[in-house]
Amino acid sequence: MEQKLKLWFTEHQTEDYGITFRVNHVYESEQTEFQRLEMVETDEFGTMLLLDGMVMTTDRDEFVYHEMVAHVPLFTHPNPKSVLVVGGGDGGVIREVLKHPSVEKAVLVEIDGKVIEYSKKYLPNIAGGLDDARVEVIVGDGFMHIAEAVNEYDVIMVDSTEPVGPAVNLFTKGFYSGISKALKEDGIFVAQSDNPWFTPELIRDVQRDVKEIFPITKLYIANVPTYPSGLWTFTIGSKKHDPLAVAPERFHEIETKYYTPELHTAAFALPKFVKDLTI
Question: Can you tell me which residues form the catalytic site (predicted)?
Fold first, then answer.
C-alpha cells in the first residue's frame, strides 16, 4: 500500500489562524523576480498555486472567484467589447471573459511571467484561454499600464493578490483614478477586496476611495473555501450602469458552476456587519 507524503502546508491567514493542506507533490518552488511561487498537488483541492505563502487558486474551487470577478461586470455592461485584466496570470478570469461573445479583445497584464508559464503547464483547465486569438498577454506592471491608458476599455478587472509585495499599488486611490481614466464613458471596473472577518478596514478604505471616483459603487460577496475565512468580497465601480438594474433579457446563457442571473442579484445582499463596512 502506497504511503502518502506526510508534508503539510499551512497558510497563516493571521498571526493566530491558518488553513492547512496535505501536499502530495511539489511541482515547482521558486523565488521569482517578484515573489515566492509554489505549484503543489493536494488531495483535497487538487493542484494549487501559492504566492508568498498564500493560496491564489486551486483546481477545486477556482471557478467561484473567477466567475464572480468576470460575469458580474460583464453582464452589467450592455455591450462589453474591450476588457482588461490586471494580474490574474493563472488565466481563470480570462477564461470566463471569453464566454461573452461581445468581447472582441481581452488584455491580460501580469507582472510575473512565471505565474503565466507555470499556470499553463500545471493548470491547463484554468489557463487554456490565454492562447485564444482575442487575448493579448502582456508581462508587465498593471499599475503603469493603467496609468498610460485613456478611454480604452469597457471593463477593467483587477485580479490581484492581497495588498502585499507587487500588489500594494493596486489598492490605492490613485490607481482607482487611473482606472476611471482608462475606462470609456460608461465603463465598469471590479476588484477583489479581501474578506470582512480579518481585513474589515481594507474593505472600508477601498469602498471610501472608490465612492469618491465612481458614482455607482457596490460590494458583493462569494464563498471561496481556500481564501481567508471563506467569505470573499468584490468591489464594483461603475460610471453609468447599475449591477442591480440589469434587464432580464441582457443575461445570456453561458456555462458556469457558481454564477447565475439570480446569484448576480443575491450576491449584493450583504450581512449587516459587512454592509456596515460600505457606509
Answer: 159
